[in-house]
Design brief:
Number of strands of chain B: 14
Order of helices and strands of chain A: EHEHEHHEEEHHEHHEEEEEEEEEE
Shape of chain A: globular
Mean pLDDT of chain A: 91
Number of helices of chain B: 13
Shape of chain B: globular
Distance between the termini of chain B: 29 Å
Order of helices and strands of chain B: EHHEHEHEHEHEHEEHHEEHEEEHHEH
Largest sheet of chain A: 6 strands, antiparallel, barrel
Largest sheet of chain B: 7 strands, mixed
Oligomer: heterodimer
Mean pLDDT of chain B: 96
Number of strands of chain A: 17
Distance between the termini of chain A: 47 Å
Number of helices of chain A: 8
Strand content of chain A: 25-35%
Strand order of the largest sheet of chain A: 12-15-14-13-16-17
Low-confidence stretches of chain A: none
Strand order of the largest sheet of chain B: 2-8-7-6-5-3-4
Structural class of chain B: alpha/beta
Low-confidence stretches of chain B: none
Amino acid sequence: MKVIAAMSGGVDSAVAAARAVEAGHEVIGVHLALAANPQKYRSGARGCCTIEDSHDARRAADVIGIPFYIWDMAEEFHDGVVEDFLAEYAAGRTPNPCLRCNEKIKFAAVLDRARAMGFDGVVTGHYARTQIGPHGKTLHRAVDHSKDQSYVLSVLTREQIDGAIFPLGDTTKVDIRAEAESRGLAVAQKPDSHDICFVPSGDNAGWLRDRLGSDVGPIVDQSGTKIGEHKGAYTYTIGQRKGLGLTVPTADGSPRFVLKIEPVTNTVIVGAREDLAITSMRGERPVWCGPPASDLPQRGFVQIRAHGAALECTYFIENNQLVATLDIPLLGLATGQAMVIYDGDRVVGSATICETA
Amino acid sequence: MSSIYVDHAATTPMVEAAMKAMVNQLSELGNPSSLHSHGRATRKTLEDAREIIAKEVGCLPTEVIFTASGTEANNIALKGLYWAGRAVGKNVVVISAIEHHAILDPAHWLSAHEGAEVIEIPVTRNGVIDLDFLMKLVSDRSSEIAVISVMHANNETGVVQPVAEVIKIARDIPVHSDAVQSFKKTELSFSDLGVTALTLSAHKIGGPLGIGALILRRTMEIPSLLHGGGQEREIRSGTLNAPSIVAFAAAAKSDVYRREEIMQIRDRFISGIQKAMPDALINGIEANRLPGIVNVTFPRTQSDTLLLLMDNAGVSCSTGSACSAGVHEASHVLLAMGHTPATAQSSLRFSFGAASTQADCDFVLSVLPDVIAWGRAANSV
């Protein structure tokens, strides 16, 4: 096949591109320039589209021996990922921008452009696997569960998964680094990226405050009594305990947790740990990553964080929304995150959580 | 797959005579500034080379100042002439809007760090500087202008600029001209032209990389950028790079660049494009241009996509414009000619050189229609 390898400048995408070449594909390396004003250098593990990263990607492509280009996707990234991130926070939800980037950039803008140019698919360094079965191509967890990225890929439609190649899903990260070393790739020991790439300072709350303002508002308990003040409701996350700055103690001295964020009134509602418990969740815009689920409701597992546990559940569709009811209650779930349904290691589908109960 | 090189304006193969001269000189020992026999031998060879280049560009040997690049020569000229002017109360730097970044960026640096007032001369739709604008500017502010810098021919479009007219208008204001693309490609004589300073680069004419020259009128004294041994008229310091300089001279003396033939290849290339893609726009087509450069706008495409597809089809060409962090910027040259950012970013530069053949031209024409079709498809998703 003729494929585009998305190369971030990190070790994973470099090895993925090399493996795609070895698998017999005709591979062209592409680095996505996502920041309108890129930083010159990486600072630690943060960010992944500095000028230094694009040099690392180019160097890896040269060592592997494939053509290399830089595609400017800054506008698409800003509109589809950064703006969405801000809008979600402003609406009191907690978005996952990596997921949005896979949905709108890597497997949409890039895959669409690649296909229009006569390429068959996109290779990335994600830790996930695909399998071809009687119902077509399906998405599965990586062998290395500690690195598994199937969660952030769960927004991909069947058509997108058809054009996706994940060469690293069968290998552990330790082995990928060793392989990079033996392939002579200088990025073998480059630190992993963490955090949000477009918040280079790592100060998520400060970054949001600069853009959304910092309107002071009340922190109230469940009875509505004001017990503190915050500087921007969107900087809080459901289940958050630290950094509330509350001076009025509870009667029994137990800690308080963020239960709810109300953007319209700019109010943060706090309460006891047990009040965080939920037994069902509801997600909008459901996507099936393989064959659409049938004979619903079905038993399965739902995962609500990138590296969270898979929780036993029953799931079904109601009013075009994906609903999962949990066998065991869960403490603290933010809307805006993805609920991803698994059948064993297979990703069935996902939706964006809009309601919990 | 065959691989066709049509990016000679970026760099072009070294001519054989230059390679030989360079290799021979690499085995010679002696710093040309040394007084002993070894030094004198290198000095002799080097001064022979200086005389050859002086003859080729129509200046006195003493007017040739060797530099490590065209960029360095441009920096010495623009900053030096500005500082010389500022010492007598002149603070204005005039450049054309279509200068290479090696002039644009020093000019903007002078503005940001030295307080210079930078004025850009606009260009017409054909990419030629607006002489009326310059005439009015000089008549209004003659006593304030430290330097005027107008390139001899543009590197993106090949459009030759009316430098002789600029000099007439400028009268006693120092004029610098970046002639990196013009040298050996079109008529160029330092003395006939009457410029104060002229920039040359070896690797654009079949010489080696890393050597250039500033031709500076012998009576002109300017402050230097690099301080040290003062080897080149106290204006440029650094041990002279004899192997590169002799190779530069060998390339300057060579007559491998056949202007008429290359112009014919270029014109057949343009006809081929116009026939296959009637909506393609040849930038600067009505102006006097260098023989080898063709700049084409292909509406509804993106140049970075086209470059990938051309490369994949075995053709090395260019957008001609600068990159910022690897991302192609809309060309300031095409924008100055009236393009929108979108049309500026759907343009490619093809440049033919001494080694180019009609077969090269035919091959590019054979892959171009498909590449443009793919590029349009990719641009519409």
